[in-house]
Design brief:
Length: 260
């Protein structure tokens, strides 16, 4: 299927690894000019080279900056001042027991996973509306629908972003702009492995054993692969997804047990 976005311009935040890189890869494969982002220059440069080599995309670049800061967001927008596509993403807060959460932890979590993506949405949405095309995808977490006890900071901050998007998405849809959230469950990323190491430390168990149990507990009997996530993101950014708006799409192999 031709997604109809060849020649469009995209900013993909936190895309030097994991799910962000998978989204950049899938968009570049569709002929999108992609600006990637990461905080470590070496890791980002390697990711940009990997995406170029895998997709044949010549218009793939990287901006080393921290997207959770105003300066970082300014750098991204300077590199791509009129994006047609924005993929919001940032590393989630570390796992911590709710009794140990400090006020400063909340400030960081809310800034990184709620306020920073909102700031980028505010910066790009008017231009998208003027051009009558825009796709904004926020990478959040399946914890929005099924909170994870050790990830209370993430549960709260991402739920706040979800509530904000629910209103704004309805305000911009008539001008060809959609805003959707993808809620990943267990994907085989560095973040997932770090969470299992934390759980092993807390329980006195073995991280590899816990991961094996996690795979068995999922209805798919496995973890997701990042390219699966990236292709969904690319479809939501396509011309075919213009009637999908304000949605929270859980991608977790069927782990969430609800009907809605």
């Amino acid at each position: 299927m031709d997604l109809g976005i060849n020649g469009r311009r995209a900013i993909v935040c936190a895309s030097s690894r994991g799910l962000g890189k998978a989204c950049a890869m899938a968009l570049a494969a569709e002929g999108v000019a992609v600006v990637m982002n990461g905080r470590d220059a070496g890791t980002l440069d390697a990711a940009v080279d990997e995406v170029r080599a895998a997709t044949g995309g010549t218009d793939v670049s990287g901006i080393t900056c921290d997207v959770t800061t105003a300066a970082g967001r300014d750098a991204l927008l300077a590199a791509c001042p009129a994006p047609d596509i924005l993929v919001n993403n940032a590393g989630g807060p570390p796992p911590v027991h709710f009794r140990d959460i400090k006020e400063s932890d909340w400030h960081t979590a809310l800034n990184n996973n709620m306020l920073a993506p909102i700031a980028l949405i505010q910066s790009v949405v008017d231009g998208m509306m003027e051009r009558n095309f825009g796709r904004i995808v926020n990478i959040t977490s399946a914890a929005v629908k099924a909170p994870i006890p050790a990830l209370g900071l993430s549960n709260g901050a991402r739920a706040g972003l979800t509530g904000f998007v629910a209103g704004v998405a309805r305000e911009v849809a008539a001008r060809g702009v959609t805003i959707n959230n993808i809620l990943p469950g267990p994907f085989d990323t560095d973040r997932l492995r770090a969470n299992f190491r934390y759980n092993a430390e807390q329980s006195g168990g073995d991280a590899e054993s816990l991961m094996a149990a996690g795979r068995r507990a999922n209805p798919a009997r496995r973890f997701g692969e990042p390219p699966e996530f990236g292709r969904l993101c690319a479809f939501l950014c396509s011309v075919h997804a213009g009637f999908i708006n304000g949605q929270n799409i859980v991608v977790d192999g069927g782990a969430f047990p609800g009907t809605l």
